[in-house]
Design goal:
This protein is of the alpha/beta class. It has helices at about 20-30, 45-55, 80-85, 95-100, 105-115, 130-135, 135-150, 175-195, 215-220, 235-245, and strands spanning about 5-10, 35-40, 60, 90, 120-125, 160, 200-205, 225-230. Bound molecules: phosphoenolpyruvate.
């Protein structure tokens, strides 16, 4: 089943009030390519000003806490994100799994909290280079999905992002054949975990997506869009990726 593509940008810990000017051209590109969805996930501090500047563009967070409120210094709840103007939240990004030691169970709880508050959860999975070299990539990702996919997820509330850790920020990407193999395996796992909703959940590819490789990657079977890091920081890089995805 061909799903409506989603191209989401993850600004990570980058950006400023001045950088919000990039959103004007990104919104224009989103409006010009009505066959797909576009989103930007800036740092927490820029969610509200981004949503105010470009109300027509989907704005997401890069993380969310699993609790509704309470004594969690420095954390932000799903309801707070909704109030700030977010409609999506990334959970389980490999940088958070590594830097903050997030477990699959925690990622699942975060995804559930996001969904319960009305956000779409973009749940990241992906193997390290050592795991791929050892021939364990498929098993590692299957295990992450088993442990972190919220079983109440639907095609409207859940998106999976396959992001091989070794491809993030490195300029390296898997072969088209490896992307196809992994996305087919993720689709099969989602069908098993989510029954009728499994075929409706979008599976993004992420890791060094650039204007030069976007169309090729987005044309792979079961690739339903992209999660883009570095190349989402400027409209000059991100807009051609949107166009490439729309053409795929
Ligand atoms: C990411 O970290 O989600 C990502 C895909 O980064 P980059 O595009 O910079 O590799």
């Amino acid at each position: 089943m061909a799903l409506r593509k989603l191209v989401a940008g993850n600004w990570k810990m980058n950006g400023s009030q001045a950088a919000l000017a990039e959103l004007d051209a990104i919104l224009a590109a989103a409006d010009a390519h009505t066959t797909l969805d576009v989103a930007i996930c800036p740092p927490f501090t820029l969610i509200a000003p981004a949503a105010a500047r470009v109300p027509g563009l989907a704005i997401g967070a890069q993380d969310v806490h699993m609790a509704q409120k309470g004594a969690h210094t420095g954390c932000v709840s799903a309801a707070m994100l909704v109030e700030a103007g977010a409609s999506l939240a990334i959970v389980g990004h490999s940088e958070r799994r590594a830097d903050n030691h997030e477990t699959d169970a925690e990622v699942q709880a975060k995804a559930s909290a996001a969904i319960a508050a009305g956000l779409t959860a973009i749940l990241c999975v992906g193997e390290t280079e050592a795991e791929r070299d050892a021939g364990h990539a498929l098993a590692v990702v299957a295990g992450q999905l088993d442990g972190s996919v919220p079983r109440e997820g639907t095609g409207d509330t859940l998106v999976i992002a396959y992001e091989p850790v070794w491809a993030i920020g490195t300029g390296r990407t898997p072969s088209v054949a490896d992307v196809a193999e992994m996305h087919a395996a993720i689709r099969a796992k989602l069908d098993q975990l989510l029954d009728d909703e499994g075929p409706k959940v979008r599976i993004l590819y992420g890791g060094s997506v650039k204007p030069e490789n976007a169309a090729e990657l987005m044309a792979v079977a079961e690739v339903d869009g992209a999660l883009v890091g570095g190349a989402s920081l400027t409209a000059a890089q991100f807009v051609p990726i949107i166009a490439g995805a729309a053409a795929a």
